[in-house]
């Protein structure tokens, strides 16, 4: 059986995964805080028909004879590049400019992390995500408060009835990771820490290289539609070429079978 059949088949499988990644990127082109993914390939093991440096009739062969077995997807890395900042004028919307994540408490009690800053006030008066997950540490907005402000360092203040000076309600924290690429995407704009991401490092916005907050704005997806469309065309062409390799190998195998008869 031709090795090219298997090699081309692995190429088609790899391009299918890349297409899945591109499709997910394009589907989330307008998702707040979404970070695009990129499929990464690596070649498979080689069959050594002649090893490098083989001694042939007293002469050392200058090159080897190696036949590859194809390719595979080794990773789907995620780009945490800054997305476009979109002004919304909603006082509870915050965009993170720079590195860092907001920590939220999931319903199971576990901590997750997000870049989506479309905050709401839940039934207990706590700042929460659009899915109702409260921020960690929690910040409560009194129902009688007005003119909520969020400073660039995360200080949350609000004006109370009968008071001229706003009262400080709490401090938004930002979480960073030694390797954010190792975070596990959990859906719902959430990430979870893993052994690859390292331990979460909680701190004040603007300190130790962390980003800052911008009130009245949201961070959009960092997906560039033009870039994804170019990748889509390349993936489609690569898939077609690999399928033609299979057709060519099949035709050659058919011819060889007919000669044998």
Q: Can you tell me the overall shape? A: elongated
Number of helices: 2
Could you give the distance between the termini?
A: 17 Å
Number of domains: 2
Beta-strand fraction estimate: 25-35%
What this model shows, in words?
The protein is α+β, with helices and mostly antiparallel strands. It folds into 2 domains: 3-79 and 223-260, no CATH class; 85-219, no CATH class. The protein contains 2 helices and 21 strands. The chain has helices spanning 3-27, 225-260; strands spanning 37-43, 46-50, 55-56, 59-60, 65-68, 71-78, 85-87, 94-97, 102-105, 111-114, 120-121, 127-128, 146-150, 155-159, 167-171, 173-176, 184-187, 190-192, 201-204, 212-215, 217-219. The strands form 10 sheets. Strands 13-14-15 form a 3-stranded antiparallel beta sheet, with no helix packed on it. A two-stranded antiparallel ribbon has the order 1-6. A hairpin with a 5-residue loop joins strand 11 and strand 12 (127-128). The longest helix is centred in the C-terminal third of the chain and has 36 residues, at 225-260.
List keywords for this structure.
three-stranded antiparallel beta sheet, single chain, 261 residues, alpha+beta, 2 helices, 2 domains, two-stranded antiparallel ribbon
Task: Give the SSE layout.
Layout: H1 3-27, E1 37-43, E2 46-50, E3 55-56, E4 59-60, E5 65-68, E6 71-78, E7 85-87, E8 94-97, E9 102-105, E10 111-114, E11 120-121, E12 127-128, E13 146-150, E14 155-159, E15 167-171, E16 173-176, E17 184-187, E18 190-192, E19 201-204, E20 212-215, E21 217-219, H2 225-260
Antiparallel strand pairs: 1-6, 2-5, 3-4, 7-21, 8-20, 9-10, 11-12, 13-14, 14-15, 16-19, 17-18
């Amino acid at each position: 059986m031709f090795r090219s059949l298997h090699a081309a088949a692995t190429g088609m499988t790899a391009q299918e995964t890349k297409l899945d990644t591109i499709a997910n990127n394009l589907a989330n082109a307008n998702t707040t805080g979404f970070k695009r993914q990129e499929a990464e390939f690596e070649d498979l093991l080689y069959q050594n028909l002649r090893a490098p440096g083989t001694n042939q009739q007293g002469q050392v062969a200058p090159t080897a004879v190696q036949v590859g077995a194809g390719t595979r997807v080794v990773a789907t890395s995620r780009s945490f590049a800054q997305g476009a900042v979109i002004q919304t004028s909603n006082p509870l919307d915050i965009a993170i400019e720079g590195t860092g994540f907001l920590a939220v408490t999931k319903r199971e009690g576990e901590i997750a992390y997000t870049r989506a800053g479309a905050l709401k006030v839940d039934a207990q008066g706590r700042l929460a995500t659009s899915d109702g997950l409260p921020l960690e540490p929690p910040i409560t907005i009194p129902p009688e408060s007005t003119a909520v402000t969020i400073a660039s360092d995360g200080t949350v203040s609000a004006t109370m009835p009968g008071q001229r000076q706003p009262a400080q309600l709490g401090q938004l924290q930002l979480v960073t990771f030694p390797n954010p690429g190792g975070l596990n995407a959990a859906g719902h704009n959430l990430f979870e820490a893993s052994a690859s991401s390292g331990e979460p490092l909680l701190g004040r916005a603007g300190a130790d290289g962390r980003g800052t907050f911008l009130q009245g704005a949201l961070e959009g997806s960092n997906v560039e539609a033009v870039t994804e469309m170019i990748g889509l065309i390349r993936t489609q062409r690569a898939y077609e070429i690999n399928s033609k390799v299979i057709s060519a190998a099949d035709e050659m195998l058919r011819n060889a079978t007919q000669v044998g008869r």
